[in-house]
Design brief:
- The chain is mainly beta and 289 residues long.
- It is 6% helix and 51% strand.
- It contains two helices and 26 strands.
- It has helices spanning 113-118, 269-280; strands spanning 6-11, 16-18, 22-26, 40-51, 59-65, 68-76, 79-83, 88-91, 96-100, 105-111, 120-130, 141-145, 152-154, 160-166, 168-169, 172-173, 182-189, 194-198, 204-211, 213-216, 219-222, 225-229, 235-240, 244-251, 259-261, 264-266.
- It has a seven-stranded antiparallel sheet, with no helix packed on it.
Amino acid sequence: MSVKTVESVEFAPHSHWVGDGFHVLPLFGQKAFTPSVSPFLMLDYAAPEVFSPREQPPGVGPHPHRGFETVTIVYAGEVEHRDSAGHSGKIGLGDVQWMTAASGILHDEFHSREQSRKGGPVSMVQLWVNLPAKDKMTKPGYQTILAQQIPNIALPDSAGQLRVIAGDFADQRGPARTFTQLGVWDVQLEAGKTAHLPIPNGFRTMLPLLEGELTIGAKTYRQGHVLFFSDHGEALEISAKTKAKFLILCGEPINEPIAHYGPFVMNTQDELRTAVEDFRRGRMGHLAA
């Protein structure tokens, strides 16, 4: 079985605030919204940050999306969501929110009321997943995926754990419903251990390293690096120099044009102009104050 090799590495040195609740690193860097990361679009990582107690929950107020999906994985704290399609939910440690914006949705995201009152650490990632042209204008959807619904697989030789959020691994299928063939795996690898992870030949494959240090081949990579692998090959071989936490993002590329403007991702500039107009005219719904 041939092994995928590291073709390039990104590192995001500068963080920014999203609203007043999420201090994030844009891990895909300049590769975001390019074919290099297809079928994904961008990835923000909010490293653990301690928030003081407050009455008004921090977060991000109502904003629109069209043409893709957002995936939020919580590592610390709690987040509440509501949207113009009538969905709402709260996710905490290990939980995942998979929102399909598709034809258009308004939503907001805040620390939960309880989280805000008590304060404490908050950490999560938000991944944007592209939709093929034929699905961009489908009905919006929402999946709350609780930690206990996610298969948690023990890697051989007590090397660590792998949670299958989407896709397949070791005859286990993740609970997320997806529009294309892709995998989202949440991995912890113990220091001094090596993992052999099968991935289909032809799948675009990325590894965002959230904590620790990994060795692949003769090179060592540290927290904040995102590794981009060759499409050719049927597996990854990864060794942990220290205990490490990372994601594996893989999938069939969507070989279609990407037109991106703020919270809208379509295939053409005309479609983007329509998205902006639809939002301005209230066609993506409304959220109560």
